[in-house]
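Consider the following assembly input.
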Amino acid sequence: MTIEAPGTTAYLESLVDVATGELDRRIFSDEEIFDLEMKHIFGRAWLFLCHETQIPKKGDFFEAPMGKDNVLVVRQRDRSIKALLNTCTHRGNAVCRAEEGNVRNFMCTYHGWTFGLDGELVGVPGMSDFYRDELDRSKHPLRKVAQLDTYKGFVFATMDPQAPPLQEFLGRTGRIAIDLLAERGDIEARPGVQKFTLNCNWKFTADNAFDYYHPQITHISAQAVGMIPSADVNDTGGAKTDEGKALGVQRLPTDLDTLVALGEYGHAISGPSLDSMLRTLPPEMHELVTWRRNPGPLAALGPVGSRFAGHPHLFPTAWFTMDAQISLRVPRSAGVTEVWWFSFKDRNESPEEQKAQLGRQIHSFGPAGFLEQEDGENWSQSTAQTRGGASRDIPQLLKMGLGRGKIIHEDGVARIEAPVNEHAQLWTYLSWLQWVKGTDWDELRSATTPGDYI
Amino acid sequence: MATAHLETTLAPEKIAAMYLQYEVEQFYTHEAALLDHQRFEEWVDLFTDDTTYFMPIRRTVPRRNLSREFTQPGEMAFFDDDKATLVGRVQKLGTGTAWAEDPPSRTRHLVTNVRIVEDLGTQLTVETCFHLYRTRLKSEIDEWIGRREDVLRRTEEGFRIARRDIYLDQTVLLSQNLSNFF
């Protein structure tokens, strides 16, 4: 095995082996890799900031992370939205220290420089007496993100002026990901973003969105109390508890009939097909997924897009759940990630259904969720073990279904139909490698365009 | 002698108030002991069948937006449980496969500043402060300090919790889960 010099393209390419489905565990704990991710991924990609309905009135703001930058997403007087870097152009202090709220302007509490909702510098204490009117206020507004755009109410921004337009970045797969939430109806963000802190690398949270191999074990206790359905089939493959007992592993009933979509720039969808989900859900819950066959949603999603009932994930960090939530994973360092849960409702649904959905949203995910308590444990312990000198030399395996993923191109979607697999995870890391190498946009798009097999 | 002195100088209603304070504090001490000894089935029995167990999300907001600090019932929350959900959480812990609590965390519930803020006879409203200290695995430490507002209903079995609202003194949670009870 050749050891390449850290940071070089050859070194980075040695970290992800798509042919064997093996990753180098260093990518989960090396600070140098994290710095490259901050620069080449979070400094360039279109990142989800918030939903328009979180900031309905002029002066409403929501602070969102973009890499290590903090931006204020602000509703303007003309109803448009701007995203401003939360740092005073004088000496750098944050001009706002709240997570959300409503303001008439932003005043830095260091020296009083005051910025309008649009970021223009409108007030400088001592302008005449101290600055002798020699300061050109027009040259020192709050800095804006390079590009901001919305897709069906979801606000995105990028720090890269060269980035392709949002719709092109999303591509068909990314748009389907959002449509699977946006087309439900008249979507509104519920007040309250759950935020909590995990001691894990962000990529464990990202690839887990596609992982339908883990629920039967990780979430076995939630399954046991009826939180998620189970099938009457057992394929334990010899898995046993510490005491040597068979676990009684019950896979999800959908596990032999799943659909994967692979998209440009690393977006993907993975999980049950709509048909298998309908066979699993009790009839009273079919409306959770059948709305997508209504004319409006069907037109947006298309014949292929409407068949996904799994987990869409926008590269790098936005997972859309089946029940109108977005889990945004916010990398704070190589070993610390915050999870932010945005939750939505359809204004057209009955109060009873809105309430029932709120209950499902609160009880499934988040730090007290029946499911996510166990997820956090896996991710933090997996991260910790990548730090050992010997442990980190063991490859990370994404071999399930390797080489068997026949990609079908139809209606602009590259899909795979197969039992549970690790294709979307591998796609994530294949794309991740292209991003961290600093590949230019044209090449990045071409290198992350799905072929015929994975 | 001290008791005799109290009886001669304190009005009966003051003695009744002291006794009520004592009963309520005993109830909370008992409840905390059940949690810290992992006797969750007994703990959940302390809640009425129509109980609500609610922990809103807290947000850092400008002082003049303080009315928006906590989310309200009907909005997102960390906990918004009825009795069946609370029982489900206890059952989940009892499966032996709730990995976030196996190995189990070690907790200490310190309940203090007990204030009976309303006494309607059949039920009381009680505010308490708590410090929940938890260690997990080899070296994880979590601490949550906050305020609870309970409705305690008088029953033949003693007090039962008919509502619990939990207000944490954190906005971004600094812990990786809330796999414990408050």
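Strands of chain B lie at 53-56, 77-81, 106-119, 123-136, 140-155, 158-168. Ask yourself how this observation constrains the way the partners meet.
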